[in-house]
Design goal:
This protein is an alpha/beta fold. The chain has helices at about 5-25, 40-45, 70-75, 80-85, 95-105, 115-125, 150-155, 160-165, 170-185, 200-210, 215-220, 230-235, 285-290, 290-310, 315-320, 340-345, 390-400, 410-420, 420-430, 460-465, and strands at about 60-65, 85-90, 110-115, 135-140, 145-150, 190-195, 220-225, 240-245, 260-265, 275-280, 350, 360, 365-370. It is found in: Cell inner membrane.
Length: about 475
């Protein structure tokens, strides 16, 4: 046996002993960096639901180290879990794939999942294990962005809003020229876009943007999967030219921070009002533990309401910097601790750039946890955590558009109803005195999308076929 093997085995054994010691201690953070124990604030909360009245009061809930773990961090820190009789073990997940798969294989009772993960598990889309996943509520809308590297900046590509300012209605055409021009000069190994999960909304946004600009993403570049905390490092070493991820991993890339890229667009500029993260559970959890499920949803709704209030945003941004959550703290002294987390939470969002200009834009819809800002049209009773089943249909159109399923399921509405539990959400919210829309489906207006193409859920097949760029699109032949 080699010395290196012995050293490696000794290291692993030592790490195991160290981790066990940490778990058995009273530290607030475990060896895997997950938040543990109860804070003083949580201990001061008087439960309104007795743990003994729940079928399963002790549950394990996952989260991923990005800004949108804020409601989970708040529910733990402020005692919303405890209020509803839950003893929650928070488990920090390495990626969005492990967050999803932890549910499917029973390691987790609940966990956030990227929009698309539930729908595509239901329909068995490419890259998604077939499983009866369910979405309990929307955790947040927006809060993500697209980062492009310095080479793309040097070629002449600029943030999307600048194309709009300069070219108005011709913005997409102008961006398309620059986008194609850049990739036409690159070898295959430098035509790569990274996203956090296959068959999910971030991949769809990357492809949607490219296709809207007239560049076929199925032919022009590859899409790879990279966990959020690894995005910046992989761009630095040239593993990809662009990526889409939740904050703070876009802000980390810009000049003044890591200086390797700039934000091209926030996800809200692709689809304004889109759902980002959903609270995922298995269907069996709802069936076997209905009271526990209701307590979980109530705790998370209250946590999202707390995160939504402007007066709480600063402390949330500070909480997210803790090692148990994003761990995104500046290395330099004298820099605000929330330098990386605040832009996406508070809304002073800096797109960056390499020309010395300040591209900080203040907006109240950078990340939406509950209350909808006036910039987003809403139905009566609508709030951010409400689930629109019509959006599950939109995700199916994109799975079909990019060849991840052969066609939109004929029973698409039934699939949406089984996966997106709007019915239960409405019941639970009503118990909390929260009004909800009476419908499960809504039309997404043209102005919500970057290409001004609205979505009518009554005709998903027609919507799919309205796109010229898509997988299995009819070939066009011209004869002279």
């Amino acid at each position: 046996m080699s010395e290196s093997h012995l050293n490696r085995r000794g290291f692993i054994k030592g790490m195991g002993a160290t981790t066990a010691g940490i778990i058995l201690s009273s530290c607030a953070v475990s060896g895997d960096r997950s938040a543990q124990g109860l804070t003083e604030e949580a201990l001061a909360v008087t439960p309104v639901v007795r743990p003994q009245d729940l079928e399963k009061p002790n549950i394990t809930v996952g989260y991923v180290p990005v800004n949108d773990c804020a409601p989970f961090a708040i529910a733990w820190k402020k005692g919303f879990f405890r209020k509803y009789g839950l003893n929650v073990t928070l488990n920090r997940e390495a990626s969005w794939a492990t967050s999803r798969d932890g549910l499917i294989f029973g390691r987790l009772d609940a966990s956030p999942v990227v929009s698309g993960a539930v729908t595509n598990a239901r329909i068995g889309a490419e890259g998604a294990r077939h499983a009866p996943l369910c979405a309990a509520m929307t955790i947040h809308r927006h809060g993500n962005a697209m980062t492009m590297n310095k080479e793309m900046w040097d070629y002449g590509i600029r943030p999307w809003y600048e194309y709009q300012q300069k070219y108005a209605e011709g913005a997409l055409e102008a961006f398309g020229r620059d986008f194609r021009g850049y990739f036409d000069q690159q070898p295959p190994e430098k035509k790569i876009w990274a996203v956090v999960l296959s068959s999910a909304i971030y991949e769809y946004f990357a492809r949607y943007l490219s296709a809207a600009a007239g560049v076929d993403p199925l032919k022009e570049f590859r899409v790879i999967i990279v966990p959020p905390p690894q995005m910046v490092t992989n761009m630095r070493i040239g593993a990809m030219q662009a990526y889409m991820v939740a904050e703070p991993w876009n802000t980390r890339a810009i000049t003044g921070n890591e200086g390797i890229g700039f934000t091209f667009a926030q996800g809200k500029e692709i689809w304004h009002g889109h759902p980002d993260r959903l609270l995922g559970v298995m269907e069996s959890f709802i069936i076997n533990y209905p009271k526990t499920y209701r307590s979980l949803v109530k705790a998370m709704i209250e946590a999202c309401q707390y995160c939504s209030r402007p007066e709480n945003r600063q402390q949330i941004a500070e909480l997210l910097t803790e090692r148990a959550f994003t761990g995104a703290k500046p290395k330099k002294s004298g820099v605000p601790i929330t330098k990386f987390t605040a832009p996406g939470i508070i809304g002073n969002y800096n797109y960056g750039g390499f020309d010395g200009q300040d591209r900080t834009i203040k907006a109240d819809d950078t990340t939406i946890f509950y209350d909808l800002p006036n910039t987003i049209p809403r139905e009566i009773g609508e709030h951010s955590t409400f689930l629109w089943r019509s959006r599950s249909l939109w995700l199916m159109t994109q799975a079909a558009r990019w060849g991840q399923i052969k066609a939109i399921p004929k029973n698409a509405e039934q699939v949406a109803a089984k996966g997106w539990r709007t019915d239960l959400y409405r019941e639970i919210a009503t118990e909390m005195g929260i009004q909800c829309p009476t419908n499960d489906y809504k039309v997404e207006p043209p102005e919500a999308f970057i290409d001004k193409k609205g979505f009518d859920p009554s005709d998903p097949v027609g919507y799919l076929h309205s796109f010229d760029i898509r997988a299995n699109a009819p070939a066009r032949f011209f004869m002279s």
